[in-house]
């Protein structure tokens, strides 16, 4: 009788025998259905309920006491949010909540709602039954692990974005476009935030940064750490920068198609070579979107790099004969043709609520200047930049100078060693700021200059300058009306590589006297950072100006600039001149972005659903191209592939055909790039609709 009683009591003990994380149902509800993975692991977003089915050995009674425990990390504690306990039949503790949704026989469906500030990352799960004989727990099972992400759909999450169309673009869209010219030209970029292995790579980046788990629920801190970790400058982060033309030890920045290959390579081999600003921005965008933070890539044209911290761009020139020449030793500031960074959408609970500085925040991972000891930048409120409120963290003065600094041009007096202010240009920096427009794979640019700055010279602009600690031009002591104006104009809107073209030096003599002008025109090939690569043209000229307009025509021959081009194609023309009657110094600068040839596509669909993609390229130059690399990728149907051509002779065409069977229906893209030592930025893309 005694033995039978023991057996009867044992049989009456509640025990959880199986846990179903209901991956398919939860992923769809949480907008996580696009994440790819072999193990079909659950991925959900915080501040939103997800469901689990608990299978017990017997029906659950109202008197039964069981709890679900979630852990993240190794040493877990309830007080710091790394250990979560949700009780059923007992008292609730912590910020996560749970409820029993349905009970049928031995199965119990429960709903779990993580807190709005929960730590993001990978959790593991245990179900504990509390009985008179103690606590029995389920064993650790990778099948019950899950990832928790930020939630742009939850109104109490700090990354909440109210507009669904914007959420689809800035969280869910895998295809992007990064602008590199004011005209709207640039390069396609595949973010691939849902590709298998990318989520683990993003979490590894946080682990490699040694970021404490307790800080990983704070989107501001995650953005700031991510900004530092995208570059390898001081922490063995993801990407190694290279602004030369020697990429022999890695991949040229112009050859990357997207972020997925970069992040997967980082996981396997460490820092990836090489990157420039758009590569940093594209990869950082993937990191942010993958973790659930709404993000977009921004391009700022004529982007100032203020090395001196005075939110002014200072350029110093020497007098060389009768013209001026930039003094690179004294000029520490610079102006890039364009610079790419990211914006992340955050509420900024860390800033005063009354200032309403939430919304888009600048985050920049290109290593330009250190911030709190690391090469990183932001997050910095775009609204704060527009209003000149530069006292709020992080890095507002640097960002303000990038988009809104005035360019001060000085002439160095070689006798006294002092500088004389020649002119101030208030409109050159931050000429235009673009991002991709909302909606599918439509690559039309959206001009967001107005979100960063007020119209130049307006009362609001003056107020911004005052807030920023600057006096708006009132203190400048220079004469900008000395009689002659000079501009450099190029009639052709677009110049193709290998094309001859004309330009004009145009003068306007506003005085009533004749002016004698002595000038010098210098043409150079440059990197997009405006650093000179090689000079290919130099000529002097003299002109006598009557009180009217006059101009000098200049012919630029391809045979002169082509041998000096690197893998990125930009020309810079600088004209300096002096009016001999009154010693007025004149200067004009013009950048010419040469358009690369494009790749041609043809796409065919067979009855078997096999897709054939053909890419064609014709060498239009009067010389052969050697060691030409090509790459192709079609998300969800063609994996990343490369091909090498030892030589493409002048006038010769090459054709590359690949085929594959799609793995997912819907709209997608096929990307291709071509790269060699004398030609970069050759690319193409094709939109494809795949039927289920």
From TrEMBL:
Name the gene that codes for it. F13A1
Task: From the Swiss-Prot or TrEMBL record, give the protein name.
Answer: Transglutaminase-like domain-containing protein
PANTHER family (UniProt xref): COAGULATION FACTOR XIII A CHAIN (PTHR11590:SF42), PROTEIN-GLUTAMINE GAMMA-GLUTAMYLTRANSFERASE (PTHR11590)
Give the highest taxon in the source lineage.
Answer: Eukaryota
SUPFAM superfamilies (alphabetical): Cysteine proteinases (SSF54001), E set domains (SSF81296), Transglutaminase, two C-terminal domains (SSF49309)
Q: Which family does it belong to?
A: Belongs to the transglutaminase superfamily. Transglutaminase family.
Active-site residue list: 277, 339, 364
Q: What is the lineage of its organism?
A: Eukaryota, Metazoa, Chordata, Craniata, Vertebrata
One GO MF term on file is: protein-glutamine gamma-glutamyltransferase activity
In terms of Pfam families, this protein maps to: Transglut_C, Transglut_core, Transglut_N
The UniProt keyword set, sorted, is:
Signal
User: Keyword tRNA processing: yes or no?
Assistant: no
């Amino acid at each position: 009788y005694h033995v039978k009683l023991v057996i009867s009591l044992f049989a009456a003990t509640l025990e959880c025998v199986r846990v179903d994380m209901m991956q398919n149902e939860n992923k769809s509800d949480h907008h996580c259905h696009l994440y790819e993975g072999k193990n079909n692991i659950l991925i959900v977003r915080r501040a939103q309920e997800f469901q689990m089915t608990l299978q017990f050995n017997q029906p659950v009674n109202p008197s039964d006491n069981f709890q679900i425990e979630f852990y993240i990390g190794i040493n877990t504690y309830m007080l710091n949010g790394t250990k979560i306990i949700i009780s059923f039949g007992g008292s609730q503790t912590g910020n996560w909540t749970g409820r029993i949704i349905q009970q049928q026989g031995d199965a119990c469906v429960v709903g779990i709602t993580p807190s709005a500030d929960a730590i993001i990352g990978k959790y593991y799960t245990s179900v504990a039954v509390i009985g008179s004989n103690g606590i029995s727990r389920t064993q650790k099972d990778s099948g019950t692990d899950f990832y928790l992400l930020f939630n742009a759909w939850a109104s109490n999450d700090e990354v909440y974005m109210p507009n669904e169309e914007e959420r689809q673009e800035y969280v869910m869209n895998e295809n992007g476009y990064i602008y590199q010219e004011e005209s709207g030209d640039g390069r396609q970029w595949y973010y691939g935030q849902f590709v298998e292995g990318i989520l683990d790579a993003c979490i590894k980046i946080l682990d490699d940064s040694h970021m404490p788990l307790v800080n990983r629920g704070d989107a501001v801190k995650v953005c700031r750490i991510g900004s530092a970790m995208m570059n390898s400058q001081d922490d063995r982060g993801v990407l190694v920068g290279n602004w030369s033309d020697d990429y022999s030890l890695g991949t040229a920045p112009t050859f990357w198609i997207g972020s997925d290959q970069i992040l997967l390579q980082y996981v396997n081999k460490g820092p990836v070579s090489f990157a420039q600003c758009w590569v940093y921005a594209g990869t950082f965008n993937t990191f942010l979107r993958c973790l659930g933070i709404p993000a977009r890539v921004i391009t700022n044209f004529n982007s100032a790099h203020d090395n001196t911290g005075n939110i002014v761009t200072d350029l110093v020139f020497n007098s060389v004969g009768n013209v001026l020449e930039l003094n690179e030793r004294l000029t520490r500031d610079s102006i890039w043709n364009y610079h790419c960074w990211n914006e992340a959408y955050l509420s900024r609970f860390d800033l005063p609520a009354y200032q309403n500085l939430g919304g888009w925040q600048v985050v920049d991972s290109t290593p330009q200047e250190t911030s709190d000891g690391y090469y990183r930048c932001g997050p910095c409120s775009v609204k704060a930049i527009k209003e000149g409120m530069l006292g709020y963290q992080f890095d507002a003065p640097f960002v303000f100078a990038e988009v809104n600094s005035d360019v001060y041009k000085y002439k160095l007096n070689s006798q006294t060693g002092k500088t004389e202010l020649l002119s101030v240009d208030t409109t050159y920096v931050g000429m235009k700021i673009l991002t991709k427009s909302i909606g599918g794979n439509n690559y039309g640019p959206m001009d967001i200059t107005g979100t960063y700055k007020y119209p130049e010279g307006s009362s609001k602009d003056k107020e911004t300058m005052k807030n920023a600690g600057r006096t708006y031009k009132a203190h400048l002591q220079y004469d900008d009306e000395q009689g002659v104006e000079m501009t450099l104009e190029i009639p052709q809107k677009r110049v193709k590589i290998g094309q001859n073209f004309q330009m004009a030096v145009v003068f306007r003599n506003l005085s009533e006297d004749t002016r004698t002008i002595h000038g010098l025109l210098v043409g150079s090939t440059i990197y997009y950072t405006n650093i000179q690569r090689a000079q290919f043209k130099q000529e002097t000229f003299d002109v006598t100006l009557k009180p009217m307009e006059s101009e000098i025509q200049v012919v630029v021959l391809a045979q002169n600039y082509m041998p000096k081009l690197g893998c990125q194609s930009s020309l810079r023309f600088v004209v300096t001149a002096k009016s001999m009657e009154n010693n007025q110094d004149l200067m004009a600068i013009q950048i010419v972005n040469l358009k690369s040839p494009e790749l041609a596509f043809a796409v065919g669909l067979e009855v078997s659903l096999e897709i054939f993609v053909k890419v064609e390229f014709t060498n239009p130059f009067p010389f052969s191209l050697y060691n030409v690399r090509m790459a192709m990728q079609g998300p969800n149907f063609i994996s990343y592939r490369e091909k090498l051509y030892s030589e493409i002779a002048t006038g010769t065409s090459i054709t590359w055909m690949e085929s594959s069977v799609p793995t997912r229906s819907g709209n997608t893209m096929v990307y291709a790039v071509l790269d060699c030592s004398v030609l970069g930025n050759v690319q193409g893309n094709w939109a494809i609709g795949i039927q289920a």
